[in-house]
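Entry type: protein chain
Record version: 2
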Amino acid sequence: MKVVGYANKLSLHPGENIDFMVSCQNETYHADIVRLIHGDTSQDGPGFKEEYVKTNIDGEYKGQVQEIRNGSYVAVPDTEDLKITGSLTLQAWIYPTTTTLREQTILGKWSGSDSTGYRMLISENGCLGLAFANSKTSLKISSDVPMRDGVWYFAAVTYDADKKQVSIYQIPLTIWPNEPSLAQTKTNVESIKIAKTDVPFMMAAHSYTNKSSEFLIDAKYNGKIDSPKIYSCALTEDEVYRLKNEAPANEVGDGNLVSAWTFTTNFSSSEVDDISGHDHNGLVINRPYRAMTGHLWRGQEQNYKIAPELYGAIYFHDDHLDDAGWEVGFKLKVPSNLRSGVYAARLKSNDAEDYIPFFVRPPKQTSTAPILFLVPTNSYLAYANFHWNNPGVDLTELFGDDTERKWDHPATDPDKYMVNNKLRSLYDRHTDGSGVAHSSMLRPILNMRPKYISPLLNNMKGAPHQFNADLHLTDWLEQMGHEFDVATDEDLHLEGSDLLKRYQVVLSGSHPEYWTGEMLDYLEEYLVDGGRHMYLGGNGYYWVTSYGTDSTHSIEVRRHRGTEAWEAAPGEYYHQSTGELGGLWRFRGRPPQQLVGVGFTSQGFDVSNPYRKSEKSKDPRVAFIMEGVDEGEEFGDYGLVQGGAGGFEIDRADIELGTPPHALVLATTDGFSDVYQHVIEEVLLNDGLQGGTVNPLVRGDMVYYEGPNNGAVFSTGSISWCGSLSHNNYNNDVSKITDNVLKRFVSEE
């Protein structure tokens, strides 16, 4: 993209500062601030709406190109004893996952700028090897035997300067008869003095500097590393095999152990411990996966906190990105009189534009309205840069014979930028095919933008989702004259129920799927104390989500037992961030029905349907909800998200899962095609009867019930609901029902 950027935070109070990082291919770009009102450009709706806000950042800025530099690794600071010039041994257990992708560095102190130093590597042919060099001579020796992806190997390479010999040990953990990837070689070489380099000792990559003296990485490794070590001598064959048989690192090498790192500590942090006693501690960069099963794991224990010795691996990827690390383009101090709402830095350069959203809260520990829109920023992060890279999946098959369209992705500049720069969502897969479990706000998020259309929806004609879809709600609130404040998931997680208790009613977004345990606790506390909640979406309160212990800029999800794009590997269901069991909240005893009366039951990407009123809609308890609503049986056969108010992802009431017994199901949306399938977590036996045309559980329910202390909950059971609010110039039954409920919830009644 010609101009693109991100901010260092998502929400802030008046008087606080926010930094904007910008990359621009042109000489200059213009920046200003706008309040975002409606982001959907569809001709069937009210159109794009924004309001210019005059601030001191208005103006032209010098453009500079800033690159996305992915890849996770460990860096150990340079010290004299790591500058080995003679005999050495590098050893680790490794689990490579893309052996023939390219040459990859496993361990070493190698300067890519002048190709000097030493490193253990995987050759471009997938063979274990050793490279060492000075300014005049460079040697690279490999086993000449390719390794297999997804297999644990004991990997060791030695260089004996006196004997002029390189030994390579490439030994699978499980050795089959006629094992094709087993190799143990000895190669005579010329004796060279390895050059001393000033670069850090690194794992899963090596470093180099460009013409601008920027620190960069190369030869990025995909896979796990467990128990890496380095000696300033060439271990004997007997000593190497003693290491393979789990001898302590300091019991071999005759006192020449330089460093031995363990990954069985600091699971939730960026620190890596050296247990040799030489204090060569390291840091992980770009948040690779920790609490990963190591070479000792055989299924003995599923929880790394109980048996950390079995979880000695870090899983590295060439596309991990925790912080893009761009230079700041400009800073904004939020004006003290700026109202709470949804804003963006608007960037323009020639014919290119980008918007960087942020959320302005009321002054600290105050409210300026009776309504809080709780912005589902965790869900925005989970879907951040979703670009559908699921190998082997033909997305057109989701629609059967109902569409003649072809999947053409990426087609737009934002989508191309996501794909070309390997910006992953929690629905995508890494280069090696494993699922993405971390997502950070500190990078461009091109689908968290006004005007962005999710390409799969509406029979692949596209429709708004997440951020842009939630602007349907903020536009309606403004149009109907409802004053509201905003706060984010992160704010709720950090500040607790006191944040919610300042408001008469809390509104969800259209798809609040990703919640931390703390957030659930705080919403429950608010509701028990008499709070009122309008859940205006679908598939909410679903995945166990956590933040890092040292920062909340990134979320973690370990998927299993759910309707999902990938599944965590056995033994890797517990979050490295918090140590808690991942997966669905329902399997930890907290199904959404207990919280809001409905829970996820199906999804479909073709069309949304109307609702059909039930007899319970005539109950006197809900007369205020249905007041002024047309007397017909159905409503909501219109909308900007797949053409109806009920659909995309839908939730149903279920007493067995916790829907309160006094809850009223006022209306139901059903009659879906077989593109809509019953959620996998409830399908215990495949029977071919899970589609929308045959399964009665494929439905969305609109529910109301009273709570303790004059509280109440209203749930729509559909992501598409808010997309119908503006129909017919906001004069429609979906709008009327929502307005009726909101007015009552704001009142003291």
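Comment: The radius of gyration is 28 Å.
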